[in-house]
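Usage

Read records sequentially. Each one opens with the input sequence:
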Amino acid sequence: MPKSGNFWDKRAEKYAKQPIKDMQSYNKAMDRTKAHLSKGDNVLEIGCGTGSTALLLAGSVQHITARDTSGAMIDIANAKAKDQQIGNTTFTKGSVIDDGLGEQSFNVVMAYNLLHLLEDMPTTIRTVNALLKPGGLFISKTVCMAGQSWVWPIVLPIMQFLRLAPYVKLLTTDELEGIVASEGFEIIETGDYPASPPSRFIVARKI
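and closes with the structure output:
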């Protein structure tokens, strides 16, 4: 199975050119995210891709640090920030469990379309908890494909063997919420954007 950084490095330029498939659902998730952000917030986004979401939300916060394991994705994100003249974003290559971010440094941590791609989701969420200030928020949106179709359990392993797909965990919304809650969070808002297959939007407060 390809390592995530290498897999996305090879697809970064194509990924950057792809339009958002469901703009209505994306806008709804962004609107709900903005409802929980404040101008004084120091925010971390993990799995930021080519930076579109971080740059969209930058005007709602004090600063966004955005990370991705793909250096090619980060290069594109930095170019976008320069072109858009947005100065309160910092794009860096790395994962959330890398050193250097600092415990209790962030008001909000965001992860969009990421958690189902992690081989060790609980450890990552536990690290997110440590990075948040007391009462800080973890905002995520995650595709939950378990039980949605008989195709995925058969097709995904084949695609991964052929290096055509990264690691993907098939989750239910209940399973996802259970993992988040078990790592020291109180879930305060949920939604599905879109509803089918459910892409679960979760706002969780650090306990």
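Summary fields computed downstream for this record:
- The mean pLDDT is 92.
- Strands lie at 42-46, 63-68, 89-93, 106-112, 132-143, 185-192, 199-206.
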